Amino acid sequence: MLDLSKYSNVVYKIIGAAMTVHSELNWGLLEPVYQEALHLELLDRGIDNVREQEVPVYYKEHLLEKKYRMDIVVGDIIVELKSVTKLVPVHRAQLCNYLRLTRKPLGLLINFGEESLIGERWAYDADTNECFIVDRNMEPLPDADYSYLLDENDN
């Protein structure tokens, strides 16, 4: 089983930086604005990070020309940013796909598009090839119901 507790401190710092960006810029701007601001806020806090890191994609051992770009990467943590009125299943699927493609153990999905900053922590277990949500203690949510990921009409 994954030991995600070692990431607790850096996740706390990333979320704190995102809260500062949200407080300074408020909500409703375009995602690239928040990406640049969060990148700078993390650097100001001494947290090395990479913006728009490319993710190679393979099909049957063939490297595809098309690549994805992750918003921000802090070590083994992918930070996927959104600026939308509501997170929907495709946003979560995008982060889970990045986790699977990179085999990184942890991802944060942060939405700047709502009045209050919204954040979710997702983990990836390479042994089982499963992506699952974790709580602020970095523990899998017991009996988590993922059916809401399948229905975009849920509240």
Q: What is the secondary structure topology, with strand pairs?
A:
Elements (H helix, E strand, L loop, with lengths): L7 H18 L5 H14 L5 E6 L2 E2 L2 E2 L4 E7 L2 E6 L6 H14 L3 E6 L6 E8 L4 E5 L21
Helix pairs in contact: 1-2
Verbal overview:
This protein is α+β, with helices and mostly antiparallel strands and 155 residues long. The chain is 30% helix and 27% strand. The protein contains 3 helices and 8 strands; from the N terminus they run H-H-E-E-E-E-E-H-E-E-E. It has helices spanning 8-25, 31-44, 89-102; strands at 50-55, 58-59, 62-63, 68-74, 77-82, 106-111, 118-125, 130-134. The strands form 2 sheets. It has a 6-stranded mixed sheet, with helices on both faces. It has a two-stranded antiparallel sheet with strand order 2-3. Helix 3 (89-102) links the parallel strand 5 (77-82) and strand 6 (106-111). It is globular. The termini are far apart. Residues 151-155 have low confidence and may be disordered.
